[in-house]
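re: ur question from yesterday

yeah so i grabbed the chain u mentioned. its 248 aa long if i counted rite. heres the sequnce exactly as i have it in my notes:
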Amino acid sequence: MRVKGGESMLPFTILLPGVPVTSDRGALGWCTVAYLALEGKRILFDTGSYGDRGVLLQRMDEVGLSPEQIDIVVVSHLHFDHFVNVDLFPQATILAPRRDLEYVLSGEYLHCKDPYVPIGLVRNMEDRLTPLEDGQSIAPGLSVMALPGHTPGIMGLYYEKDKILFASDAVKNAWEFQRNEPPVTFFSKAVALENYAHIREKARIIVPGHDRHFALGPDNSVQYLSRCRTEIHSYMDPEKDEPVRQFV
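ran it thru and got these structure tokens back, copy pasting raw so excuse formatting
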């Protein structure tokens, strides 16, 4: 697959790279948004966070895409940073894990003290959400994979030909994955760690929820396959002519 301005060596384009940072004000929610074009289908995996909306549209325009051209949006789970921009894609079929739909719409997420569910938007978009089942095919060679732990229904997207797993928050970042530390979980840490082992067996390349994509070495080493630099501006001193710029 070749997309103008995109990556030509791998069969996907990272529209927004995941960034492994947090803050004492809570989760920033800078997740990975990936685009795939397979067998004539234009597929988006996750949609980014509240503040990503304008940047996502800009990035899509840069690679020659419009929101109306997206055929399928696969939502890995129903946390705000992966779900809130689904309404940008008026022509798309929106697929979301059945188990996470149950988790949210039944109110189970409240009992799990999960603060990241945008319940109002989920209910507003409910009629457009098609339930996803484990193993369901999205396109030839591309299927969803249940990876519970972070939430009970979270799913990844697996491209069998190149053994690429779009893991979302089942692998939040390489730092946690290499140290066998589970992501923040609202379902089961034990199951999340079991999925780490399953992922190592299945995947050659992992696209995490909040990090750059990487290849796995035979000794569980991590080799990043792209660079990422995020610039943060802070306006703390009105006497300064320029804001303070920091880079991640």
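noticed a couple things. DSSP finds seven helices and 15 strands in the chain. also The domain at 13-247 is CATH 3.60.15.10 (Metallo-beta-lactamase; Chain A).
anyway ttyl
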